[in-house]
Specification:
heterodimer, A: about 350 residues, alpha/beta, D-Maltodextrin-Binding Protein, domain 2, 2 domains, nine-stranded mixed beta sheet, about 40% helix, B: about 425 residues, mainly alpha, MetI-like fold, two-stranded antiparallel sheet, 18 helices, 2 strands, flat
Chain lengths: ~350, ~425
Amino acid sequence: MKKTLILTTALVGFGFAANADVTVMSWGGAYGAAQTEGHVKPWMAATGNAAIMVDSDNPAPAIKAMVEAGNVTVDVASVEYADAIRLCDEGLLEPIDAASLPAGADGTPAADDFFPGAVTECAVSTDIWSNVFAYDTTKFPEGPTTAADFFDLEKFPGKRGLKKGAKAVLEFALLGDGVPAAEVYDVLNTPEGVDRAFAKLDTIKSEVVWWEAGAQAPQLLADGEVAMTTAYNGRIFAAAVGEGKPFQIVWDGQIYENESYVVPKGAPNKDLAMDFIKYATSTEGLRAQAAHISYGPPRKSANLEPIIYAGDGKTEMGPHLPTNPANLTNALLTSSDFWVDHDAELNERFQAWLSQ
Amino acid sequence: MAEATTELLTTADGRPLKAALAAAQSRAKRRAFFLVLPLLLFVLLTFLVPIGYMLKRSFEHDGFASTAPALVAWFEANPDFDPANPPEEAYAALVQDLARMQVEKTTGLSGTRINYSVPGTISLFKKGAREAKDLTPPFKESLVALDADWGRPALWRGMQSASHVYTAEFYRVASDMKLNDDGWARGEDNERIYLYLFFKTFLISGLITVICLLLAFPVSHLLATLPMAKASLLMILVLLPFWTSLLVRTTAWIALLQEQGIVNDILVGMGLIDDEGRLTMMYNMTGTIVAMTHVLLPFMILPLYSVMRVIPPSYARAARSLGATSWTTFRRVYLPQTLPGIAAGSLLVFILAVGYYITPALVGGADGQLISNLISFHMTKSNWSLAAAIAAMLLAAILVLYWLYDRLIGIDRLKLG
């Protein structure tokens, strides 16, 4: 018995020693790789601490389960904005002291340097990704230029690809119907506004091919199944710049969203995790991530000088980033408050509408 | 029976033989039990406990009950209050709880709980909680002035319902009921989705089971009657897709069947259809059925094959020699003997099909939502209780089918291989 006890203690001790690494949980794929290259490796080199990256197909439910079970093995997780808010409200995340975030590289204090909404009570944004639409330039040399064009089947005939879900699709329908970005959520908050969005979608319903996984959108475009499709901007960038496909993004009516680092409540290395987040969300850390993937850095100072794409060493990232001023002329920041309240309700309505 | 031998049989040391045998056997049984213990624990820990936990979540949620003690106490004392016009004490209790939530950081937890039945509540609670400590009596006026939604009867009904830890609310939502100002009622036409999807899921699964059976029956018969060498080769062809990743197979069907896909290209190339009239075989019900049938076919072939292989061909020959037509021979002699295989295969395919969601989501287009897709949606949106309630209803429906199956065919006739 005593022997077992000693052995167990030794094993647990060993377990703790091995756990001194900061564990970062992200989404895997190109995104996880960008954070490994842009944040994890440079932080290890700069501080001498150990950190490892683990993949998850969605870190939010994973850390919810961990915290509720009282067995947290992750120190930092990358989660969608709405999840960051929700998990924070449920008390599952550690608060992050906004005042401790470093000033921008040009000396701007963090509070002024970050985009509005990029820093919240428990989360700091690492990048801004966007729902955009894209078309094949060989099909439309004079291409569509506005969100309204997406819904114009006469001027731009052909099938449309749309994401199968209420979020971002309803907003896009209203933008396409001429609602100014600043008023979209006011309109959508009324029953008439929801009806209006569905009525706009009705006008193209017969021509829509619905996609589910992010990779499907560029594939539908490449196969010629659709004339234009909504997509995550990073996917179109990968196809256009990485694979040389003739795809063009239309930034008018883009619906963008922050993706953030959070620290789960009871993280084993909380202090190191905070240090990691400060490093990763500094001007330098944000720029390093944006060099690997076309998601925009959420600090003004990080968008000042051109970022060079690490993939080929020559493409300037600026025009491909949602945060580029030229791309932000008619853009909508996703309202997490709205979707936290109405996600289930509107998704039920959307599914019912689909099956009609 | 030899009634004359009334004397008990005993062992050499005089113990009754029966007792000695029982003692010896119980030792052996205990040893045998230790051998199955690891599996028993494994099943218990990885199967029964999670399912039990899930079922519990579907009718238990203390998100509001544990965070709003004053209001819970008030609801308990006044179960028959008028939701359209709650008295001042109710509002006072609410404000007291909101202030408490702000301090304890439980606004999200309780708001989320109410939001399940009354959408829009999370931000209402957050706003209310932020202002709560500055509100002055009369609380009714000051809260309603803050946001008119605080006076909604539906909200008060929702809070009263959520003040109980155990609730049937999630099952109501999963049956397309909505909580409105007058209480629970059937949702509007454009909101009802769950029962329709249950129905559709079972219909499609049934259809796929039938198609699988029709396709698999001749193939299995061929496999069972061919010489061994050829049968093995054919078997490899059957199993090959079985060894390929599900996503790869699904994507392959997309490449084949889409409008700009290989099948349409060939048809256009042969001049059978023109370029404008390409067939739509993907992103609709056809795509879902084709892809799912392909994925599930081996689950029908394998049990059928294992049953058919051991049916002696002499039975059919005997029937023929006694004058039966080939159809009668098949119907009265061969088919009844394959029944355990048909039953096992159908059960397997049907139950697997009911739980499928990746394939229909990717290839099904607007029709491609099955009930599992909504379970997955609510899991990722952190409404685990509703997901659990839908899953529990699915489980119950399958158990009913299983029971029917047992009554009609008999579970002892099931033969999986």
